[in-house]
Design brief:
four-stranded antiparallel β-sheet, elongated
């Protein structure tokens, strides 16, 4: 074979080797858009952000803080997510091991009997180990060897797979942080709802006492022939209605307590709280900072970003499958038919070294499908990242508006309650002097009860809005 022929063969071999990489399916990756508006509706450019406060600094109720602290240790769902983090960490270990050499140690023993009238049997019978001796029949076999296999990561396929696993591990940590944020917020909302229900029950009891007093007055008026039995029955029905309402509220209290106990990870028990302070709770002043801070503060945004980074690497891993892979295998050991010869060197020594170059040439549909799917998942991850940013901004914008509107609504509700409380006394006085109908007294009491309950509801909505803006800004996980 002349020199030109050898060059031609080498060129053809390299061309065939690289051919699969020259015919890659065309893909279009999506570039994520992470831009946000400069400010919220308020127009403030102050970067002070309440979302950066630790939950122990944001909330100042010792009973609520104790519930959150217990939940972060005992909540079952949170502990399940912690195990997901361990699983992701193990995946990194597995990926890292794939691009390192594999060392296998082995030992074996066996026995082999072949027919005498075969080429091997006849050869063994005529070959002396020592003068006058044949191979043993049957033939024992003892072996001990070490084998090393290593896929050379030429195209960084294995390293990129490991980096992708790292990003997914980090994304599970951010997922855990987002879970903590939601857990803290859910406990706080349920806690304030429980306090509001206590106040509802207290209002119903106070109103019930007023209605019982009014019922006694109506009974006296009937005895004086100033009203009929109809008035007595209407007032009596109103008393029974509010007595029934007490049991409905008590059931809501039990269910809300048990919801809190479930979040905390314990069996039902009374939840310690001081509900008398609820109407006077301060909504404080939440500082929203600027929208771009959401990318740093919100764990769900960071999780989506890390998943996108992993998806980008997955494309590179899938692309590397089109290129040839090169692996090296070597082995070293001893083999003999008698243990006393096993360690004799070099007679019983065996060794080997081989390299293997493999490239997909035809029927690459599975590799193409994996590559195209990786690209589609990258586009999904990019859209998910953009959607998460948009959702975070809208959540903050909604709660900022909600806080402002609830503050104005609460002030008007306070004035309404004060006016209706005064109207109760006025209506009873007018009724005693026969200047007002009993229905006016009933309706005034109903309106006053409803207004007081709505005032408590508005206060609860205010506290929920404060918790939700804190969560929307990315607070609670630090």
């Amino acid at each position: 074979m002349n020199k030109n022929t050898r060059i031609t063969i080498a060129f053809l071999a390299v061309s065939i080797w690289l051919l699969p990489a020259c015919n890659l399916p065309s893909i279009v990756q999506k570039k994520e858009n992470k831009s946000t508006p400069v400010t919220y509706q308020s127009g403030t450019t102050d970067t002070t952000n309440s979302g950066k406060l630790k939950w122990k600094e944001f909330f100042n109720d010792s009973n609520l803080l104790a519930l959150i602290d217990t939940a972060l240790m005992n909540n079952q769902e949170l502990n399940i997510i912690l195990q997901e983090i361990n699983i992701s960490n193990n995946e990194i270990m597995a990926r890292k091991g794939e691009y390192l050499p594999f060392l296998h140690l082995g030992a074996g023993a066996g026995i082999d009997k072949v027919g005498r009238y075969t080429s091997r049997g006849a050869n063994d019978a005529n070959t002396d180990i020592k003068p006058g001796k044949e191979f043993p029949d049957p033939l024992p076999d003892f072996m001990g060897a070490a084998t090393i296999t290593w896929e050379v990561d030429i195209w960084k396929k294995l390293r990129n797979a490991k980096k992708s696993a790292v990003y997914r591990y980090l994304s599970t940590i951010e997922g855990k942080n987002f879970m903590v944020t939601n857990l803290v917020a859910e406990i706080a909302e349920s806690y304030y709802e429980l306090m509001a229900l206590d106040n509802h029950l207290q209002i119903v009891k106070q109103n019930l006492q007023i209605q019982k007093n009014a019922l006694e007055i109506v009974k006296l008026q009937k005895q004086a022939a100033k009203v009929t039995e109809l008035a007595v029955k209407r007032f009596q029905a109103e008393v029974l209605k509010n007595q029934s309402m007490q049991f409905y509220i008590q059931q809501q209290i039990i269910e809300t307590e048990n919801r809190l106990n479930f979040l905390v990870g314990r069996f039902p028990q009374p939840v310690k709280r001081n509900s008398q302070t609820f109407p006077h709770l301060s909504t404080g002043h939440v500082q929203e900072g600027i929208p771009s801070q959401l990318l740093e503060n919100r764990p769900d945004i960071q999780q989506a970003e890390l998943q996108l980074m992993a998806a980008n690497l997955d494309i590179q891993v899938a692309k590397a499958n089109f290129y040839p892979s090169f692996s090296i295998t070597s082995g070293l050991g001893y083999q003999a038919f008698n243990p006393k010869y096993l360690l004799q060197t070099p007679e019983s020594m065996l060794y080997g070294l081989a390299g293997e170059l493999v490239a997909p040439v035809v029927n690459r549909n599975a590799i193409k499908a994996t590559y195209l799917s990786a690209n589609a998942k990258q586009i999904q991850a990019a859209f998910n990242y953009e959607r998460t940013i948009l959702n975070a901004y809208i959540e903050v914008a909604n709660q900022l508006s909600n806080i402002g509107n609830l503050a104005q609504s609460y002030d008007l509700k306070v004035q309404q309650v004060e006016a209706l409380n005064q109207s109760i006394n006025i209506s009873i006085k007018l009724f005693k002097s026969a200047r007002a109908d009993y229905m006016e007294v009933l309706l005034t009491q109903r309106d006053a009860l409803q207004a007081r309950r709505e005032l408590i509801e508005t206060k609860m909505d205010q506290m929920h809005a404060i918790v939700r803006i804190y969560r929307a800004l990315g607070g609670g996980w630090r």
